[in-house]
Amino acid sequence: MKKRLSIGLSMALIASSSLTAMAHNDSNKHDFKNWNKNNQIQSVEFISMKAPSTIENMVKTYTESTVKVTFKDGTVKEVPLNYDQLYLTKDKIVENKGEMIPAGTPIDVNGDPIVDNSIPEDPSYFISDAPDSNSLITKGNKTYMISHFEYDSQNNAGEEVSGLPASMTLTELNRDKKTGKLTVENAKKIDFSDVNGLWIPCNGSTTDWGTHLGSEEYEPDARAFENKESGAYKEVSNFAEYYFHDSSKANPYFYGWIPEISVSNKGETSVVKHYSTGRFSHELMKVLPDNKTALFGDDGGNTMMFMYVADEETDFSAGTLYAAKFDQTGTENGGSGNLDWIKLGHASDEEILDLIESGVTFSDIFETAEEPTDGFTAVKTNSHKTVEYLKVKPGMEKVAAFLEPRRYGAILGATAEFNKMEGLAVNEEDSKAYVAISYQNGSMEKQENAVQDDIQLHKIDSGVTYQLNLEKDQNDHSGAKIPSSYVPASMEGLVLGEDLSSPDEFGNTADPDKVANPDNLSFSEQLDTLFIGEDSGMHTNNFVWAYNMETKKLSRILSVPVGAEATGLSAVEGVKGSSYVLSNYQHPGADLGEKEITAVDKDKLEQAMKETLGIMETGGVGYIAGIPEIKGNQKWNEHAAKNRDNHKKHENSKRASGKNEQE
Description:
By secondary structure, the chain is of the alpha+beta class. The strands form ten sheets. The protein has a nine-stranded antiparallel sheet. Strands 5-36-35-34 form a four-stranded antiparallel sheet. Strands 10-11-12-13 form a four-stranded antiparallel sheet, with no helix packed on it. Helix 8 (397-403) crosses helix 9 (405-412).
């Protein structure tokens, strides 16, 4: 293993959360704290579990994986992992205006629960079946978790829901001091009324200074919104009606941003949206080790890779936005290429918000043509369904750069061909980042008659997780120096899925022993391990995997219910002596009817799903326990100290600027 596991590890394994796992297994009474106190760890290995093969296992969230710890004297200890569910999205754990409501219920601008009136004689609160990102945040002696709730798939009448506002929930957690086990103390909804509500929040991340960075993906098409017959107009108007109870407040430029949520020492939340980071289909924003540079997932087809460099550390209220041009260098092992960064512009949150509130529209920014025309650039981006012929109006370059960065980036030559660019993780010690391309197909293949064809990679429907190589002293496309030491200069495939030519007996169309359609990513510096969560229709059951960077071993460590997606993945280390892998699941039972399953009785499987969680009725929020925490690691101690310093610096900066929280 690398030095993060083998240098300076005096008694190195203390796993309060592993005691949680052992508490659930009476056959294993060992206590890591009493093992080899003067020994050092040689390696930590995740032992893979088998894929579920019975109806009983296919409908539940569980792990049979173990962690094998080898000490330098040859001693080997192995303990089981365990999945602890904190709550279901339908559980009434949220206190809201004196009433207990479900965790996944969205609220309107007044803080009232949003009601589903699709069955007039039986109105009820909407409940999201789609929990996603989690952040675990410690404030004083209290531990909080912020969780996303993306959407409600359908209303009570079974109809597809359009434009329903989303929500986040803040949960105060109790932590057992002996075992590390987490339980719910109380919960409340987070208020987004100061930022015009919350669009679809997908993945997210936790900053080193103790805040949560959320997301708003699938930004509404502002061009289509100008047509009142369009789906975009309907969706944004529905949102305004649900949230403001006033459809005249519909504005597509309110949505598609990065919200940052702070928690005070008293458990109060405050929210800002970072308009200077650009508006697109934000899967998430991941901050790099300098706490100034950030990368993003851009979910959908014909998307773009963006980078943001803030003016000041820990402060994303002003900075410079860049977009990447991909220069392909190979097709083997998923593919590879160099990245050339094009500067789009510099702005502050305040500047961009002023533009939005002024009522600027798509037609104020661009001239359009219906066919190839001199002076107009042909672009194909996720922003619109078809090829567009665009010209930026004089003086509107900055507006285009931040309200329409994908369209503007394509005009400047950035590559708009990435497909389903999802999760991100950072390996600080090795100056690497990782990005999930969930489905490597479509715009990432060679395309005849494409307006741009920078990416011409082999089709891999089950996707590829890529490694980004972070470099210093990089120049942008114009030759100007980029003010960051963590610029992605190149990328290459790291973990590949494998498509099957025909479904297997469980209905899988991708190899069940390899990752299919990677989505959530999280990296553990302590364990030198990349955790990968799936969002796959190619696996009948989705999994969470652990990929060891040193050994290149891939281990399945969690299975979620049939039809469900594994979400909310976050490796959390050093929480008062415990470590966890936060992991949720959403929309269980989805698309089950489409699966070609012969290994078990499909009707009985569907019935079992209905009798347990229901079909797309609720999702689950929880975590994997039993992850060993490594004490005495010099690198980890430096990382923890840096986080404490960043937190203090961020708090001092807020006070100095008059933005300190109300205590």
